[in-house]
Design brief:
The protein is of the alpha+beta class and 359 residues long. The chain has 2 domains: 185 residues, no CATH class; 106 residues, 3-layer Sandwich (Rieske Iron-sulfur Protein). 47% of the residues lie in helices and 13% in strands. It is built from 11 helices and 9 strands. The strands form 2 sheets. The protein has a 6-stranded antiparallel sheet with strand order 1-9-8-4-3-2, with no helix packed on it. Strand 2 and strand 3 form a beta hairpin. The protein is elongated and about 95 Å long. The termini are far apart. Bound molecules: FE2/S2 (inorganic) cluster. The site of FE2/S2 (inorganic) cluster (FES) has 12 residues, from loops.
Length: 359
């Protein structure tokens, strides 16, 4: 049955080596012992055959979701005025990437390249999930991960805090193994094997396999294009009020209790921590130069980790390596692209009071 072939795929050709097998017993074996050994060998072979299936499903689903997420994000193609846009992130990456020069075309045609990446991720995700031209899809995923590693997360230290390098390694495993089981590739390979046994010549078998694979690719690509276009048209999220541009200063805590620290607790170059009475978020009150006080949100604008207190004139984020200027809050090193929100601080005798949020 053809369905069975899809399940089995190229089982014979791709049977994994049974590295865990025990040496054969030299003495006489009981029938029960031989049965148990055979079942154990079958279990090991089954586990080896499907070992990469969870990874494949995860990568396929994640890349498909990542593509749709970008298409549904109103900031993604917003352009230079929006710090969360593809353009602004490419501009920030250009300043720190070892291949920053390669980003020039993306900065000239940000809409085209932004859509190319979003639909590319969607295509890679669908090809991987369905196991259609699995090696090519995995190669596409590896290229995307390598591009993101070199442009976005290259400066993250230590390197294991960035996630693009692990994705690159995971895709490499699928490039090597392909998608021979529970996949369209497996179905086509199984059918080709039966065609050979029926006596069909090799050229005819190859033509049939390539033609049917191409038809499936066009159908799946068309479905992806349709879903992506519908997502971009109807599901695109509206920007929250006040996120596209800095809002006017507003009082902290709405007239509630003030956050304050003793002047003596904030040395030049150092900081003291208070909580924003409105949100409860941590805020560093700093003195970058003698007699000059201000406050900065301790929440990293990349993904919400708490940045470390200022050291050597910088706030550093322990999650992905962003660094911010301790005097202005400006981004020194990405992946963050937005500065830390800044607060006014007023001196009242020997106390420093946290004032309004400026941006
Ligand atoms: S750099 Fe990613 S959360 Fe700070």
């Amino acid at each position: 049955m053809e369905g069975d072939a899809m399940m089995e795929g190229t089982r014979d050709a791709a049977e994994p080596a049974d590295f865990g097998a025990q040496p054969a017993a030299t003495g006489p074996a009981s029938p029960g012992g031989a049965g148990r050994a055979a079942r154990a060998a079958q279990r090991r072979a089954f586990a080896g055959r499907y070992a990469l299936l969870p990874l494949r499903l995860f990568l396929g689903a994640t890349y498909g979701y990542a593509g749709l997420y970008k298409l549904a994000d109103s900031h993604y193609l917003a352009g230079a005025g929006d710090p969360q846009s593809f353009y602004a992130q490419s501009l920030a990456a250009k300043a720190h990437s070892p291949v920053g020069w390669a980003l020039a075309p993306a900065l000239h045609q940000p809409t085209f390249f932004g859509l190319l990446i979003a639909f590319g991720e969607l295509a890679v995700g669908l090809g991987t999930l369905f196991g259609l031209w699995g090696r090519i899809a995995a190669l596409g995923g590896a290229v995307l991960s390598l591009t993101l590693f070199l442009t976005v997360s290259f400066n993250i230290s230590p390197y294991f805090l960035g996630n693009d390098l692990p994705y690159l390694m995971a895709w490499t495993a699928l490039v090597l193994a392909g998608t021979p089981y529970l996949s369209v590739d497996g179905f086509l390979a199984g059918r080709a094997e039966r065609d050979r046994r029926r006596g069909l010549d090799e050229e005819a078998v190859r033509r049939r396999t390539v033609l049917d694979g191409s038809i499936a690719a066009v159908a799946l690509g068309g479905a992806g294009l349709l879903v992506g276009s519908l997502t971009a048209t109807f599901v695109r999220r509206k920007p929250k009020a006040g996120t596209a541009a800095p809002s006017a200063a507003k009082p902290v805590g709405g007239g509630g209790p003030k956050a304050s620290v003793a002047v003596a607790d904030v040395p030049v170059g150092g900081s003291a921590t208070v909580a924003d009475p409105g949100s409860g978020d941590a805020v560093y009150i700093v003195q970058p130069r003698t007699g000059q006080y201000c406050g900065f949100s301790a929440i990293c604008t990349h993904a919400g980790c708490t940045v470390n207190p200022p050291k050597n004139g910088q706030f550093s984020c322990p999650c992905h390596g962003s660094a911010f200027d301790a005097a202005t809050g400006a981004v020194i090193t990405g992946p963050a692209v937005k500065p830390l929100p800044k607060y006014t601080v007023t001196k009242d005798g020997d106390r420093l009071d946290l004032g309004p949020l400026q941006s």
